[in-house]
């Protein structure tokens, strides 16, 4: 808990905040841009706003967003001799890995919440849609919070290993593309990829790409199991790497 | 002073065929200030990183506070060890106070422990500033405060006087001395003897990855062999006679001969007298510690 509190202090004045707020807002605006320009309203109301915002967001911007957050959170450790100070503290490697991943996963969760609120805002304020989005959308948002944890752990591990800010982001972009292709070919088997898991969850109920439009209990169970297993395996692997890794000379 | 807080046995680090540190046997008595000296690139930082288990030795062992230092034991041991390796640590986007708050959280310290450490480096008036606006000297002092806050038994400082002005260096000396008086063992590295020789009880000199001297200042002086200076009736003739010994004529018309022990000195006097040169003065040249250090590290001898 102390390691996590320490990580939260590091978020003060961090560039992570503009990403957490800006990325979902921009994507929701981009999704609605055509209708806003034409002065039309979305054909299927809330479902259309959701599909054009969250559907696209789940394809690759979500993975890129998590990767940027990972690079930002680890960047400060690669500066000066902060790495030496971090590794010379009595905090165990597991605590360090869990705290960093929790911060990235937490910021990602905030991003999902802001995405939902942005969909709500654009539907109400720009398109004057009636009522509220389907409760299913809120459930998918909650599921997305859980389903993006393995990607957050993996990106945290990559940014821990690489001093480069951009390379982990490029990895996320490529892996996200491959994972979407794998989802189309292999279905839920591609949930072993944290990026595939995030994309599959974001597309739930949209009927686009890899989704058939109806959400089954099997789909949700597969997502939850993949998220839990992926998180545990990736945390353990990242901890083992950190524990045995030498600092740079 | 006799029980060792740091003990290494044949500590070696190599990268491929390049040996950075070779068969190092460090012995740091508890409660002393240990000056770890050597030119840049001698392997001082690598050694300190091995002591902290930041890098793993290729061969050899490290024992700290009587316990083997390894990846499995390091987190337990590190609670009692404060360190500052290479550049000073610190998150530039945070204030000094926020950086210390991090240390407090991570190490489970009290506000008082933090305040004492900050006051010890006299940084209490700069704590609301972001670290990016600190001078190098202030960053160095913050790094030391971060290392001190846990009230360590062992403090490992790598070139802590880098970036400090003469007043700052003097302050650092006083601080290290005071810590040692309070029972903290301090290992401090430098490539400049003058910066730590007045503070250190023990000196270890590293050159090319090998320990070329370890002991007290007096032992270091004794271990070196100062030139012998001859004052005689005919210095030019004496220099010619002793050319084979590497003799040199000084501006004061004295003849200096390097590397002579007492028995050889007697032989040289006899040789000069045998050649008809009257000898009326024989003495050892006075060397400063700096000169001894320079000659040792340049020649890699001892």
TrEMBL record, chain A:
<dbReference type="Pfam" id="PF12730">
    <property type="entry name" value="ABC2_membrane_4"/>
</dbReference>
<keyword id="KW-1133">Transmembrane helix</keyword>
<protein>
    <submittedName>
        <fullName>ABC transporter permease</fullName>
    </submittedName>
</protein>
<feature type="transmembrane region" description="Helical">
    <location>
        <begin position="54"/>
        <end position="76"/>
    </location>
</feature>
<feature type="transmembrane region" description="Helical">
    <location>
        <begin position="220"/>
        <end position="242"/>
    </location>
</feature>
<feature type="transmembrane region" description="Helical">
    <location>
        <begin position="138"/>
        <end position="158"/>
    </location>
</feature>
<feature type="transmembrane region" description="Helical">
    <location>
        <begin position="165"/>
        <end position="186"/>
    </location>
</feature>
<feature type="transmembrane region" description="Helical">
    <location>
        <begin position="97"/>
        <end position="118"/>
    </location>
</feature>
<feature type="transmembrane region" description="Helical">
    <location>
        <begin position="15"/>
        <end position="34"/>
    </location>
</feature>
<keyword id="KW-0472">Membrane</keyword>
<keyword id="KW-0812">Transmembrane</keyword>
UniProtKB/TrEMBL annotation, chain B:
<keyword id="KW-0813">Transport</keyword>
<protein>
    <submittedName>
        <fullName>ATP-binding cassette domain-containing protein</fullName>
    </submittedName>
</protein>
<keyword id="KW-0547">Nucleotide-binding</keyword>
<dbReference type="InterPro" id="IPR003593">
    <property type="entry name" value="AAA+_ATPase"/>
</dbReference>
<dbReference type="InterPro" id="IPR003439">
    <property type="entry name" value="ABC_transporter-like_ATP-bd"/>
</dbReference>
<dbReference type="GO" id="GO:0016887">
    <property type="term" value="F:ATP hydrolysis activity"/>
</dbReference>
<dbReference type="InterPro" id="IPR017871">
    <property type="entry name" value="ABC_transporter-like_CS"/>
</dbReference>
<dbReference type="InterPro" id="IPR027417">
    <property type="entry name" value="P-loop_NTPase"/>
</dbReference>
<keyword id="KW-0067">ATP-binding</keyword>
<dbReference type="GO" id="GO:0005524">
    <property type="term" value="F:ATP binding"/>
</dbReference>
<feature type="domain" description="ABC transporter">
    <location>
        <begin position="6"/>
        <end position="233"/>
    </location>
</feature>
<comment type="similarity">
    <text>Belongs to the ABC transporter superfamily.</text>
</comment>
<dbReference type="Pfam" id="PF00005">
    <property type="entry name" value="ABC_tran"/>
</dbReference>
């Amino acid at each position: 808990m102390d390691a996590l509190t320490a990580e939260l202090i590091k978020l003060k004045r961090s560039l992570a905040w503009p990403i957490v707020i800006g990325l979902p807002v921009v994507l929701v605006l981009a999704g609605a841009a055509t209708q806003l320009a034409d002065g039309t309203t979305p054909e299927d109301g809330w479902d259309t706003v959701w599909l054009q915002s969250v559907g696209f967001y789940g394809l690759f911007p979500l993975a890129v967003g998590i990767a940027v957050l990972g690079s930002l959170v680890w960047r400060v450790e690669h500066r000066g001799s902060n790495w030496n100070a971090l590794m010379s503290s009595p905090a165990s490697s597991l605590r360090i890995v869990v705290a960093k991943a929790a911060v990235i996963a937490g910021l990602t969760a905030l991003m999902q919440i802001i995405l939902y609120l942005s969909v709500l805002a654009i539907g109400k304020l720009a398109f004057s849609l009636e009522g509220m989005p389907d409760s299913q959308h809120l459930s998918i948002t909650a599921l997305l919070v859980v389903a993006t944890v393995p990607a957050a752990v993996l990106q945290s591990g990559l940014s821990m290993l690489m001093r480069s800010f951009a390379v982990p982001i490029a990895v996320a972009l490529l892996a996200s593309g491959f994972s979407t292709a794998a989802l189309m070919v292999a279905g839920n088997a591609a949930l072993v990829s944290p990026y595939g898991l995030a994309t599959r969850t974001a597309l739930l109920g949209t009927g686009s790409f890899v989704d058939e439009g109806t959400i089954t209990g099997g789909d949700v169970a597969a997502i939850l199991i993949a998220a839990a297993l992926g998180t545990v395996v990736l945390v353990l692997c990242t901890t083992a790497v950190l524990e045995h890794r030498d600092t740079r000379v | 002073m006799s029980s060792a807080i740091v003990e290494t046995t044949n500590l070696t680090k190599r990268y491929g065929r390049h040996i950075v540190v070779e068969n190092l046997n460090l012995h740091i008595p508890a409660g002393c200030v240990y000056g770890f000296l050597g030119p840049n690139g001698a392997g001082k930082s690598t050694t300190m990183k091995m002591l902290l288990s930041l890098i793993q030795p290729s061969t050899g062992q490290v024992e700290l506070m009587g316990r083997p230092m390894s990846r499995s034991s390091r987190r337990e041991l590190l609670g009692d060890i404060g360190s500052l390796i290479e550049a000073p640590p610190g998150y530039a986007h945070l204030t000094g106070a926020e950086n210390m708050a991090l240390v407090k959280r991570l190490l489970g310290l009290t506000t008082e422990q933090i305040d004492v450490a900050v006051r010890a480096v006299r940084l209490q008036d700069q704590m609301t500033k972001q670290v990016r606006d600190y001078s190098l000297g202030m960053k160095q002092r913050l790094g030391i405060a971060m290392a001190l806050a846990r009230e360590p038994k062992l403090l490992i400082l790598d070139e802590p006087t880098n970036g400090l002005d003469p007043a700052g260096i003097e302050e650092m000396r006083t601080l290290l001395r005071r810590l040692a008086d309070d029972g903290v063992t301090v290992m401090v590295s430098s490539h400049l003897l003058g910066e730590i020789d007045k503070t250190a009880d023990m000196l270890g000199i590293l050159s090319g990855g090998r320990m070329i001297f370890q002991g007290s200042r007096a032992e270091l002086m004794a271990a070196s062999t100062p030139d012998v200076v001859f004052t005689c009736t005919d210095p030019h003739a004496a220099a010619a006679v002793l050319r084979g010994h590497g003799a040199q004529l000084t501006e004061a018309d004295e003849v200096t001969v390097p590397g002579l022990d007492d028995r050889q000195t007697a032989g040289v006097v006899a040789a000069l007298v045998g050649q008809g040169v009257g000898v009326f003065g024989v003495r050892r040249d006075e060397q400063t510690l700096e000169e001894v250090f320079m000659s040792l590290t340049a020649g890699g001898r001892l």
